Amino acid sequence: MNDVASPPPTAPVTDALPLKPRGKVLAVTSGKGGVGKTFVSANLAAALAKRGYKVLVLDADLGLANLDVVLNLYPKITLHDVFTGKAKLEDAVLPAPGGFSVLLAGSGMVEYSRLTPEVRGEFLRIMESLVPHYDVVLLDTGAGISDVVLFAVSLASEVLMVATPEPTSLTDAYATIKVLVGQQQRQTVRLIVNQSARPGSGAAITKQLQQVLDRFVVSEPGRGVKLVHQGDIPTDPEVRQAIMRRQLLMQAVPTCPAAQAIQHIAGTLQQDVIPRP
Known about the structure:
By secondary structure, the protein is α/β, with parallel strands linked by helices. It has eleven helices and ten strands. It has a single domain, classed as Rossmann fold. It is 40% helix and 20% strand.
């Protein structure tokens, strides 16, 4: 199921949210920028494709998109062209290295950094057209709690929060989770600790963050939010080398520790939330 297929023409806009059964749409997000969120999205997509899933990564960072840089792609058509009616959706979906598909956003599009009714409507229309045709859709969102980021996350059945062990990253991750619980009544958030310094540190970080959430955050009266430790990605010099070469780590050095960790995370997602292809 690794073949890349173009989606059908776009469907009409409706008020309903797109189909998102358990594990169908995953939002990869973060409280702070620069924690490796797009790196995780792209390489996790490759790991899931390797497991037989038909995967699409949608660059939902509408203002500061950089998925194209990570994948070394030079798109002639982006989400901007689809939004403005200059191109058809099926022409904007591209094959990516690693056996998955991508829908890229243009960088520096200020008009898409705010959630206007037009942006919301176009985003919904695109999602409704794409989601039924893939086993997994990964939304590579922006960082933080802007209205565009929160709207993209609201379309996902599961949230993958990427953080590093740095205090600022964890503080912003906590703040973002608090908003997701308050606004979207999220009861589960899955934590991926990137640049983990030592084995087991991510589990300890998750436990500490869970204690803070138990004390200060509830999804509804009498019910807390569960933080799931989805996995760690260790600090690995091969990661920087792959990024500088604009290559997928999963393709460039699939046996390095970081790549093995991403493969493990793909396996835990398959076991926990994503139906088998």
